[in-house]
Each structure stands twice: as C-alpha cells, then as structure tokens.
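Two entries, shown back to back:
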Amino acid sequence: MFKRLKTPLILLLAALAVYQTGQLWFVHLTNRNLGVFFRAMFESPAPDGYVELTRPMRVVARDENQRTRTQYGVTCQAAEEAFGQVLRRGVFTGVVARQYASDNLQDTAFVLYEYAVMMRAEIFALAFGTRGNTRLLDDEVERFDAVAVTAGSVIFLGEEYAWTYALPEAIILPEVQMTPSRNFVSVPYNPYARSGEVRLDTVNAQIAHFFDNPATRSPRFMDNIITISNVNTVVQLLPGNRHVLYYRCFRPFRRDGVPDFLMDFSAALAFVNADPNVTNDFYLAGYEARGRTHIFSFNLLVSHGNASFPLEAPEIGWGPSDAPLFYPIEVTVERGHVTRYRKLAYTFHAEVG
C-alpha cells in the first residue's frame, strides 16, 4: 500500500515546494500576487477592440410617423442585422454625394449610427462580418463616420461621398419612442475624498491598481499637489477647476514596429475599464494621432430613467488652465502601452432639479 502511495506523495511534496518558493519570491519579497503573475504571462494584454470601436457614439432613429429619438450608449439589433446582411450578400447600388444621400433620408424611416471618429472599413467588416471580408474595400468604401439603415438598404456616409447597398432581405425597423427631456442636473461625486475632503491618505488608498508593485509607492503632498510615485510610475491629483487625476508611466518597452490603431485603442479601453473609479458608462468621443502615439478621448454618460445623456464640459474644460481636459477621460497609448492617463476625478449621477 505504501509503495503505491510513495510516488504520488513525492509529486505532491514537489508541487508544494514549487508553490512555497513562488509565494516566497512573488508575494513576500515582491508583494505581488502569484495568480496575477501567471495571468499576466498567459492573458492577452488588451481585449479585442473591434466591438467597442464600432459601438456608435449615438444612435438616431426615425420611424414612418416622423418621430425621432437620439440615444447615447446604445446599439440597435435591427441595424446590426442589416450590417451583417450587407457584408454577406449586399448588392452595391452606387455612390453619390453625401449631402444628396442625407437629404434623401429626411422623409424615410431609418436608424443612423454616428461615430465620433472616422470608421475604417476593415474594422467595421471584422466586427460585423468575417475575417478577410473585403466587400466594402472592393467598392472603394474606406472611411465613414455614419451608417444609415433603412428597411431595404444600408448607406455608408463618408466625408464627401455616400455608398449605398441594397439588402437581400428587408428588415423591420424599431418603432420610435420620443427622447425624454433632460430635466435633471449632473451631480458630481469625488471617490478620492472622504467627508468631502481630499487628503493624501484618501487618494493613496484609491490608486494602488496603477502600480505593478503598490508596496514601492511613495506618497507626498507639495505645492497643493498630491503625488504618489515609484521608479517608473507617477500619479498626481491636480487642483484647479475640479480635480484631475494624472497618471504617467516611464517603464521602458520596445518601440520597433508600426503603430497600430486597433491595438492602441484596445489598450486604452482595457486601462479605463480597469479603473474602479470610472463608474459611469462612457464612449469614444475623439482621437488624435501624434507621432508614434494615439490619444483617445472618452466622454461619460449620465443615466436618468431609461435614457443616458453625454456629460457637458465647461467651455474652459476641466483641470489646470494650462492643460485643460475637454473630455473627462484622455488616454495616450504608444504601441499598445498606456503612457499617460488624465481623467476628471469625479463620477456623476442624475438629480432632478
């Protein structure tokens, strides 16, 4: 009996020895969790960004009775069914001036996806079609910032031109419920404060997730700025027109290869999603390519009842006057690595005035 158990016992003891060594090195000596270490080794560094990138900034719907509704933070199942049909079996019917196509929509029921940035055809095809689908590119549809869906067609609206496809099967557009009035005010809440007061200890308690090794961070308060840092990461809470949280990372990484927009967007999205103090829904409101980096701006949505509305920024923006934020979240990414993150420190909820 003992001989049969000897080998399994030896294997079990060996496994425990490996585990204890790992705990010693990664937890007790470096203050890192072993599970986090292995997840970092085997997981993708950022989620697939196709779906979120093709999520519209807003959806405008009009029905046969000329009722119109604009919604933020939503998608439309009927429209996305039409997108799939077009990429599989749509029939290209021609290209016209954008203004002409827009004018022709005025007396028609439609659903309109509007994007804050120019959407690339290949990304749209990957989100709603199959890998390698070149139907749009074959018809010289490259970039567009809106897509209109009628019962029998899909129209891609570019800067100057519009491309129309006939649907192989008619779709049923949703009946429109009128947009509720915006009869509320957006009330801010600062998660970095305690009893309304922002202090070094309250901020320090909320920003550990920004550091690979939180035990190495050094907090200090100087010139009315809270700064928490280690050798390669700096997090600051800046005063001014409401507080702005400012993250910078100086960790070295390889800078070879060509900057990739989708990889950078996925990294930005993952970074914002990992911030536990971003509790409002948000959407991509703009981006800028600057040298080797992409800068993504996100706006917050404030929900009231069954509707959501975009947060309205003051004309002077938020934060310090010499570097204001005009959207509440800004992420700078270089080759898949977030190097700078600025955000309004507040979250928002609706309150009827």
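entry 2 starts here
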Amino acid sequence: MNEIPKGLQTYFLNETESEERPAIRREGANIVIPILIREATKTDESGNEKTIFKFFEVVTAFTGQDIENYDKCLIQSYAAIRKHLYGEPAVQSEMRDDKCWEAHRLAVRATFPKYRGEVIPQIARFEEIKTKFWNLIDDTLAAMGETRSVLPPYFNSTTMLDFAKAKHLSADTIRDLAVQFQGINSDLQSNNRNWGELFD
C-alpha cells in the first residue's frame, strides 16, 4: 500500500515508523497488528535516502488468530481493527460535523472486510451517484461544445447553471439540469454523503 485509502481519516491515530517491515507480534495475552503499512523514503543525517515503513498499530486480544498469516489475521481481527479506526465517540462526532464520517466508515469497512470479497452496498450506491453526476456534467459540457478542462477543480450546481446560461443553453435545458442536480443532491443526503466527495 502506498497511500491511505480515499476517505479514510487518520488524523486522530498515532503513526509509527520503522526501518524494518512490521509484522504481527504477540505481547502476553494480546497481539499487535500493524495496519495501513506504507513504504516511504527518509533522508538520514548523512543525507542518504533510505526506505522506511509507516503504519498504525492495533492492539487486540489473542483469541487464536493465525499471526503467521497476515491477511488471514486481518480478517480474523476485523472487528477490533474497525473499532480502532472508527475512533472514540468524540472523534466520530467531529467527523460527522465535518461531513466525512460516512466516507470514513465505508473506507474502513472496505479496507478491512469481514471476509474476502465482502461487498459494501453503500459504496456501490455512492459510485452510481458519482457516475450519474459526472455523466450529467459531461453531457452538459458536450451540449456547450466544451470539455471538463474549462471547469474549476471544484464547483457547485449554481456555478454550473451560471455557466450553462452564459453558454446560451435553452431555458428548458437549464431547468432540467437544475432538477437533475437537486436529485443528485437528494441522493447524496439520503446516503449520508456530501457534494464535495463527488470531486475526490
């Protein structure tokens, strides 16, 4: 893994670094599981670059997990890992206030499934909404004779409607566009997602 999965928040976790690839280890009645292991480079005091590993550690009770098989142990310990990554209630409230809780929760579930091949329906539903949104944008731009290159990195529905008006699309087309934007926004809200996530 080279980066944290999209949507997964780690600002409240303690990150660990090691020059050796971390492995699951036993500590008394517990095991310590390194998760979200990423390779990085670091410059030492002599100015030489070296490979290091960044990760987070989850401590959970040893209940017979296969600690020699990393992937299997992750699945056997999925509940403890998810609980660790969900954070304390105060952290969850903060993420809800910031409108990123649902994306975080689903990213955790997708990254640490209960079993191999677990499908998360909410993720598939959001991807459908995102595809619908960008198809609408592309179709509207095509009607203007434009491409996404003319758009800013982020825009809201008002920006797009103003752009459509400036490009002299018909009033009916603009009304229909507004209705479709309202539908997408409603779909996002009913799935606990937000407009900004369409641009991730």
